[in-house]
Design brief:
Shape of chain A: globular
CATH class of the largest domain in chain B: Mainly Beta
Bound molecules: glutathione, FE2/S2 (inorganic) cluster
Strand order of the largest sheet of chain B: 2-3-4-9
Number of helices of chain A: 7
Shape of chain B: elongated
Largest interface: A-B, 19 and 27 residues
Largest sheet of chain B: 4 strands, antiparallel
Radius of gyration of chain A: 17 Å
Structural class of chain A: alpha+beta
Distance between the termini of chain B: 33 Å
Order of helices and strands of chain B: EEEEEEEEEEEEHEEEH
Helix content of chain A: 40-55%
Helix content of chain B: 10-25%
Largest sheet of chain A: 4 strands, mixed
Number of helices of chain B: 2
Strand content of chain B: 25-35%
Order of helices and strands of chain A: EHEHEEHHHHH
Radius of gyration of chain B: 18 Å
CATH topology of the largest domain in chain B: Rieske Iron-sulfur Protein
CATH superfamily of the largest domain in chain B: Rieske [2Fe-2S] iron-sulphur domain
Oligomer: heterodimer
CATH architecture of the largest domain in chain B: 3-layer Sandwich
Strand order of the largest sheet of chain A: 2-1-3-4
Structural class of chain B: alpha+beta
Amino acid sequence: MATLYDYALSGNCYKVRLLAALLEVPLDVQAVDFYPGRAHLAPAFLALNPAGTLPVLETGESVLTQSSAILGWLAATQDPTGRWLPTDEPETLARVLGWLAFADRLTATVGEARLHDMLRKPLDIDAARAGAKQVLRQLETALAERQIAGQSFLAAPHPTIADIACFPYAALAPDGGIALDPYPAIRDWIFAIRSLPGFITMPGIHALHEVLDQP
Amino acid sequence: MTDWIPVSTATGLRRGGVMRSFVCGQELAIWHSAGGAVHAWDNRCPHRGMRLSHGFVRGEQLACLYHGWHYGADGACTAIPAHPDLVPPASICVPTSPCIEAGGFVWVGGDPAHPPAEIPRLGLRSLHVEVPLATLRAHLGGTPDADGLVPFGIAAAALQAWDDRTTVLHLATPPKTSTTDRIALSRAAEALRREVEEWQTA
Ligand SMILES: N[C@@H](CCC(=O)N[C@@H](CS)C(=O)NCC(=O)O)C(=O)O
Ligand code: FES
């Protein structure tokens, strides 16, 4: 079983937990005290990942860093259907890779605004929110066009790792003081992802109440 | 002129969905029941004031996320989960506004005896534009019809003042418009937004 070095409030770590849950792949989850302990900068952790970033996945054969790379490894090794990373469809694959790069822009803007508001990270919050608006508008436009074409997901007629990579920081935007009211297509896409069988939550991202049994 | 204010395209709020909106400065929860009815309520739970737009739709009822109180189509409380045997008193009731789906849009606040025209249209998308309504209306040009709609290419544009600084541009097309033309209209709307926002900050 692969070991995930994890921080419960990290959207990037959640991406890995979410895809593993959707693929029904068990992970050995080791909590790292990112805040307030800063354990990701302690010598023991830096020996594992000199970059000092979470998530880290130990597969038994190698140590993987960067959430998008880990999503790619999970999809390539643990998804017999090949749908989550469609390597045999070059157009779709290219779209997926484009969205993996885009996901880092969400982390750098929405994610930073959230770290400012939740963990008091010192940064220019106005710049972070202005950047977030540009990135969320791009996501909204792309998803609106997908809807116009009758599609619910970013890169294919079914969910791929592109959706998993972009989902957490879009859904967590309110934690960074960024309202999602201006983004109706993002709202529908968030609903579609929360509806996936096997979906799991993290703090700030809830399960669907509509589908739970009446109490 | 009509008193109906557009708050969404008809397809912009899925069945079973709930969202927040602002009409004349008032914060509303707009929700779409499983059976297809649309509702506009004060966005405040009578229990402890939680935003009802964070709640969830169960059939023809809206439930509050906080303690799960349920409210029926008329806004009256129907169930309090912590007291399953209690019949909620009629005084527990969410204030409601008229809300109707017509002509490809969802409208709030007008006279139900005079609904907007039933012209078949397909919702395209809604864009938040960070300029006041009068600015966007001037940029769009055209003569508003009886429901306040102006043409945007072959689409119809309905404008909602979200607040003093932001206007929502709701767009709907004739039903048989091709996907290519609909995407082109969506991009034209993006271009218009960029232009009018830049024009304002220039
Ligand atoms: N691009 C990386 C970013 C990972 C990242 O920034 N992780 C944060 C936690 S969410 C981190 O470890 N930050 C270390 C630091 O800021 O010192 C990924 O997607 O995995
Ligand atoms: S605040 Fe709505 S049920 Fe308690």
